[in-house]
Amino acid sequence: MSFLEGPSPKQAEMIKSELGEGPEELEKGVRDLRSMCAANPYLPQPEVLDRKLLESFLRGCRMDFERARKKLETFCYARSRFRDLFENRSLTEPPLNDVCKFLDIAPLPKLTDEGLRVTIFRVRPNYPESAADIAAAVRAILLISDVRMHDETLIAGDVFVWEASHVRASIAARVAAAAGMVRRSIQLAQAAYPQRMRRIHVVGAPALVASSLHLMRSCVNEKVRKRYYLHSKAEELLDHFPVRVLPVEWGGEEESIEILTKKWKRRVDEVRDYLRYLSELCDVTPDTSYSNDIYGAVGSFRKLDID
User: Per residue, what are the HEC states of 53-107?
Assistant: First the structure.
């Protein structure tokens, strides 16, 4: 059962107003996206499209149908073309169970006052070197993103918090070796997922990972580059988030990152049918219909902005 909490009635009203969402706009958007798919033989047929999935794309694009259309197309095409990013759909079974010894991934249950969802990515202390597999970490992050699409409620946008105080020098070389996959995943997050990236906080990052941070920032658009915040310690996050939202080890009132991460690992297995549905949904596009260059993909990965 999902443990992501939705907005209060007042927050829901505020978020819908900000997104420009009304009952008529949402209905029309869902109808138009279904029609778009019906007219394209390389996209899922409208009768198999989950309504909540379509609503997520519309809301993630502030009810802009053209942007939602481009993102949905790219979502389907990219999953068909870059299948390696969506392999191994479990965090409790090999090989992705090992990455959990390296990286905690925990979307937090409560929304901020602005209606934002905070997701924590924490490099674990004393992680085994063999578990620091960057390619596996990318797949795990995309896997949690897919589960969130199933569970997520009405939100105003996303905030990512990277806690990197336990990163070792070897990580920089590992990130460099997997730079292609890292770059593709970041571009996918911008161009193919229905999210509005509002801020990125990096905590405790040592100088030795400067090159890795530069790679991540170089892959995002100018708006997001301006939304990076660097902190020397996690306690500084209390200046940006309510106490009720943050985990207890960071001075908050929420359950620990350890507990939340274990819940998410179980949640992935609970929604296996939905993950299978996504795979089958996007298994209709032949490779020949998709450019070999990710930057030339439908929807233009370089041109799409995150609002």
Answer: HHHHHHHHCCCCHHHHHHHHHHHHHHHHHCHHHHCCCCCCCCCHHHHCCCEEEEE
- pLDDT one-digit tens code per residue, 269-287: 999 999 999 988 887 655 5
Helices of type H across the chain: 9-19, 23-38, 51-60, 65-81, 96-99, 134-151, 170-177, 179-191, 210-218, 222-225, 257-270, 272-281
With b meaning 16 or more CB within 10 Å and e meaning fewer, what string describes 97-111?
Answer: bbbbebbbbbbbbbb
pLDDT, tens only, 12-47: 999 999 999 988 999 999 999 999 999 998 889 999
Q: How many residues does the chain have?
A: 307
Q: What is the pTM of this model?
A: 0.90
Give 254's DSSP letter. B
- Give the CB-side neighbour count of residue 266, counting CA atoms within 13 A: 9
